[in-house]
TrEMBL record:
InterPro entries: Cro/C1-type_HTH, Lambda_DNA-bd_dom_sf. One of its GO terms (molecular function) is DNA binding. SMART domains: HTH_XRE (SM00530). CDD domains: HTH_XRE (cd00093). The lineage of its organism: Bacteria, Pseudomonadati, Bacteroidota, Flavobacteriia, Flavobacteriales. This is XRE family transcriptional regulator. The keyword Signal does not apply. The keyword Coiled coil applies.
């Protein structure tokens, strides 16, 4: 029994990473200063020269090693732990990073609503007391 070994097709890896980054070939071409047909040729190539690979990696926002070692199995953990430390991070980020638990936020909103309701009840009680005082004074 022989096992088939998948070839290390760099172009397919670039294509898959580009798709995962929700980037079209035209957008990658523009980032590299080329055209869509050149990107298509790169993605169909089994090997790519190191200089060009470095440019593509930079345009995709990943490292050369990430492209070379890319596999479907490890891509989930890689992209979940990838943090962009460039100027695209933060307020103007294309992919914002949320660091909160939605249930915690929901509970905070619920507690805040409860406090506001209690303040409203207290204000109404004070208003009733004030009006009763005015009525008794007449």
């Amino acid at each position: 029994m022989s096992t088939l070994i998948k070839p290390n097709h760099i172009g397919r890896k670039i294509s898959r990473i580009r798709e995962l980054r929700d980037m079209k070939q035209e957008a990658l071409a523009q980032a590299l200063g080329t055209n869509q047909q050149a990107i298509s040729a790169i993605e169909n190539s089994e090997t790519i020269e190191d200089g060009k690979l470095a440019e593509v990696a930079k345009a995709l926002g990943v490292t050369v090693e990430a492209i070379k070692n890319f596999s479907e199995e490890n891509m989930i953990s890689y992209f979940n732990s990838f943090h962009d430390n460039s100027t695209n991070n933060g307020q103007n980020a294309a992919y914002p990073i949320y660091n909160f638990n939605p249930l915690d936020k929901l509970m905070e909103v619920y507690d805040e609503k409860e406090k506001l309701y209690e303040r409203l009840i207290q204000a109404e009680k004070e208003k009733v007391e004030y009006l009763e005082k005015i009525i008794k004074g007449k």
